[in-house]
Amino acid sequence: MIRVYNIIRQQILDGVIPQGAHISIQSIATATDSSNGPVISALARLTNEGLLQHQRGHGYRVAEWTPELLEDLLVVRRSLETEAARLAARHAGPGDVEVLQSKVNYMAELVREGRRADGHVADVELHMSIAQLSRSAALIDTLRRSHMLEIVHRRLQIYEPRGDFTNLASNHQLLIDAIASGNAEAAGAAMHRHLSSRVAT
What we know:
Layout: H1 2-13, E1 22-23, H2 25-31, H3 36-48, E2 52-55, E3 59-62, H4 67-91, H5 94-113, H6 116-132, H7 137-156, H8 168-180, H9 184-196
Antiparallel strand pairs: 1-3, 2-3
Helix pairs in contact: 1-3, 2-3, 4-6, 4-7, 4-8, 4-9, 5-6, 5-8, 6-7, 8-9
């Protein structure tokens, strides 16, 4: 199931399967040299993540993301990540902060090399690392789905590049410093400011 899931997921993220496209279980099974069972399991997982939509009697379709929907999701993400940062500040030990710092250092390297696409990936990985420190399974799962839709938005929507790439590392350094302080309120406020900016990622 994981192999089939990864194939379908990547094709959606790469735009090979476009938004609104109908997904044929049999076609996917044939293309991936799999039986229907693993395909159905993979489609159910992708539906749970928000990449697909399922309607009884009509099957599966790739979800469509309007700017309004994505803006609504950002509001939800801002609230969840603010709480994640608060919890991370309470739970993070020196080793955890070192891991977060290494990710910011990597971002700085990506900026120097002009690797914007890799910077977007590093951005998501850092935010998910902060979410992991919340130790809340429900929060982590919800944010994972939120970030997945953000990745889709960046890859499939034809907009100007989003985010202040030049200051990618320095913007996130402010977050890490706030979390490292152990002050939950300061960390939450830093995350809220970070996600409230139209140029921050």
